[in-house]
Write a structure and sequence with these properties.
The protein is of the alpha+beta class. Helices cover about 65% and strands about 10% of the residues. The two termini are about 55 Å apart.
Length: about 375
């Protein structure tokens, strides 16, 4: 059984075998069907050959095959009537697959007239017995077989169209999934790039400032130099831990597992910045979504980094968190001179703006009353989908 299931017979071979059996079985009845003479017998045999030929290419050209079979069948009936022989022969069974193929491959405007024509032929051929006695069942059975063949073809066509529609839907879903995966991957790369920029820009700038101060104070004030070096070590370790976590995400495609910076770490961030910064909190602090809290922290971190890199003669930096109804206002201002990052073409402001937009907020940045000002409005609740 397993060997037979693996051996698949080509459709053309099965068609040839079926046509050969019907053609051979047709010959014993030809003598009885055509007593009028050999020429009529030869004509009926030729119609049988034509019907077989039309049947064999029904898969490639269903409508043309049907027309050939129908024409040969009509001619056979005419010859049978002339000879006084049988009007229905075994070879006429080839009309059924011809009708089926048309109904399964063409729409209503084609298969319905084809079925009607075949049904008329079947009724006429079945209603002309040799005995001359007309019986209703002789008409009903051929017509019923034609209608069943056409109905079977319509059902097969509907099933095939449903399968094709499902296959197209599956392909479309696969394309949509690939597109979503590509967008998610691009968003993740953007997020990691922002994280790397924030970590490196902030940490390295702090390390540079502390290292310069330690180098200047190494001989005159060794205790303060040692304290600065200690801060360099802590900042470097923190940056390395965050970088290790991000690199681990890139290697394993997993979510970050180390603690993300929170707003309660802002005092330490301001201390590490080596800027004359002050933190003001207005309103009652509430529990924020993790994405919003991380965005607020990174915006403040990047704003402080920009102040160190681009501002001159800074004597005061104010960081303000204002908790309102439904939003959090994050404001970082300084009284230094310079143009912030606007004229430097960096990626800090763009990254801050992307962070704000990603969690449903907005960000504005530009010269303030004295110095540079960054203001972000972030929602305090996650948007419902």
């Amino acid at each position: 059984m397993r060997l037979l299931s693996r051996w698949k017979v080509p459709p053309l071979v099965t068609d040839c075998m079926a046509a050969f059996v019907l053609f051979v079985y047709n010959f014993p009845l030809l003598l009885y069907s055509a007593p009028a003479g050999p020429w009529v017998l030869l004509g009926i045999a030729v119609t049988a050959v034509v019907m077989v030929a039309g049947f064999l290419f029904r898969r490639r050209a269903p409508l043309a095959s049907y027309l050939v079979v129908l024409a040969a069948a009509v001619l056979q009936v005419v010859l049978a009537v002339i000879s006084g022989g049988l009007t229905l022969l075994p070879i006429d069974l080839l009309m059924l697959p011809a009708v089926y193929q048309v109904a399964s491959r063409h729409g209503l405007p084609i298969w319905l007239p084809a079925m009607a024509a075949a049904a008329v032929w079947a009724g006429v051929a079945g209603g002309m017995p040799i005995s001359g006695e007309l019986r209703p069942k002789d008409i009903a059975w051929p017509v019923l077989l034609v209608l069943l063949a056409a109905t079977w073809g319509v059902v097969a066509r509907g099933r095939r169209e449903r399968i094709e529609a499902l296959a197209e839907r599956v392909a479309q879903l696969d394309r949509e999934r690939e597109l979503r995966d590509a967008v998610a991957a691009a968003n993740e790369r953007t997020r990691i790039a922002r994280e790397l920029h924030d970590i490196l820009a902030h940490s390295l700038s702090v390390v540079v400032v502390l290292s310069d101060g330690a180098a200047l104070q190494l001989r005159s004030q060794p205790d303060q130099a040692a304290e600065a070096i200690e801060q360099v070590r802590e900042t470097s370790r923190s940056a390395l831990a965050q970088l290790r976590d991000l690199l681990g995400v890139l290697r394993s495609d997993e979510t970050a597992h180390s603690p993300q910076p929170r707003l309660d770490s802002l005092p330490k961030l301001l201390e590490q910045s080596q800027l004359p910064a002050r933190l003001d909190v207005v309103g009652e602090p509430i529990q924020l979504p993790l994405q919003v809290e991380l965005a607020a922290y990174r915006i403040i971190q990047e704003a402080l980094t920009n102040i160190r890199k681009h501002a001159v003669a800074v004597s005061a930096v104010q960081v303000a968190l204002t908790y309102g109804e439904g939003d959090l206002r994050v404001e970082v201002t300084d009284d230094g001179h310079g143009k912030g990052e606007v004229l430097h073409g960096g990626f800090g402001l763009a990254g801050m703006r992307e962070r704000a937009i990603a969690c449903g907020g907005t960000l504005t940045a530009g010269p303030g009353d004295s110095g540079f000002q960054v203001v972000a409005m972030l929602p305090t609740r996650e948007e419902e989908e």
